[in-house]
Target: Peptidase M20 dimerisation domain-containing protein
Amino acid sequence: MSQTTLETYFSKVDELKPAFIQRLSDAVAIPSVSSDEGLRPQVVEMAHYLKEQLANLGAVDIELKELGTQPPPVINSTLQLPPVVLSRFGKDPSKKTVLIYGHYDVQPALLEDGWNTNPFELVLKDDKLYGRGSTDDKGPVIGWLNAIEAHRNAGIELPVNIVTCFEGMEESGSLGLDELIEQERDAYFKGVDAVCISDNYWLGTKKPVLTYGLRGCNYYQVSIKGPGADLHSGIFGGVIAEPMTDLVRVLATLVNGQGEIQIPGIMEMVAPVTPEEEALYKDIDFDVSDLTAASGSNTALYQSKKDILMHRWRFPSLSIHGVEGAFSSGGAKTVIPSKVIGKFSIRTVPNIESAKLDQIVIDYVNAEFAKLGSPNTATCELIHDGAYWVSNPHNASFTAAAKATKAVWGVEPDLTREGGSIPITLSFEEKLKTSVLLLPMGRGDDGAHSINEKVDMSNYIGGIKTLGAYLHYYAASDTN
Ligand SMILES: C[C@H](N)C(=O)N[C@@H](Cc1c[nH]cn1)C(=O)O
Ligand SMILES: [Zn+2]
Ligand SMILES: [Zn+2]
Model:
């Protein structure tokens, strides 16, 4: 690859900026929220939108792979999972093949949650693009399409064959995708040399990173059922056992205010810290002010860089997310809910065994509920899980990404792990027997999963350049 090729590509990306913003705007306008059963048609619409875009860009073998119905627990048992969008650019046996994975579903978002603007309208303000999915993960998915368009438009041949794998259930546990990878391992995915995922973030706001680890996520619900219907608290308060009271008491036993998991047997499974690992943290560009800025608060549980990063990357955490069935709007409603469902998840790390964790958690919740002596009934179950992943970042794919980063941003990237999860990562590595690289586009303060999610314009455009440059450097590398 010549320097001129990259420079021509970068100039084309700059020239096409208005079209690239418009493409992201069109994608953000589709509220493809995978966790909301009522919005499933919009998730499917997003798959069709991508199919059309890919076709316009010259992709071949485009397929919307159906994954069947969504497994329980789900209200509508006939709910279809959204399709996985597969396509190819190039089939040249003399070129390497890179599989690019991303997800086109998003987290829920409502204006009344505190957004300054409609979450499903891309808004440009202060050189930042606001909207649900702008950084997680529509920005990067659309970024790949833009990288391909810039090549076509500049008359530059793609340096590798590309296979796209875009799913619509990542935010809900990637249901059905494992089976698809297994099924397509020796078919659609045959010959894949490397997998590149752009679906996480820089650690802070200034320094690019490449990521070689993720925590896993096991998500649970505990349902507590009592009265036959919601009741008047003046008539029944104090004379019946309330499911919400039981639930709050059970949830309060899971984790303490220091973020320490209270369920015995979990911390015991965590891999010990080695001296080599201890040494890694000192060179990472991060401090508590990055956490303060990203969280918009002074609520950090740890003050040192090492403690924060270790608790984000290599220790488990337990978060309580919400309660289904409970009164949650403004005003004052004097009702006793008859059934409530508490939701919590555990971020997992090496060497937590997923099935063992499930058993420990479910037994613990049942035991804590039994201690209450309540006449209500409780059921605890897993909703979905996704494995943690830690890899060796010293391979051709990471080296190519480091060169691409240097070419675009002028600095060597930090090597980081990510506190979040991308459930399918380990499956790609194990089933396709390839390296996986996480090459993020956005910044640590983008507000993924939060209100006012954004991607900075410089990260969007610089990210498109980095993704394209990575393909060139990877193509030029000697080995896989
Ligand atoms: C890091 C990635 N962009 C992301 O947000 N992943 C989600 C995946 C997930 C797992 N269970 C539910 N969603 C996350 O880390 O929450
Ligand atoms: Zn994501
Ligand atoms: Zn996400």
User: Anything to note?
Assistant: Residues 136-137, 170-171, 173, 199-200, 217, 219, 386, 420-423, 448 surround L7UNP4BN (ligand 1) (CB under 6 Å).
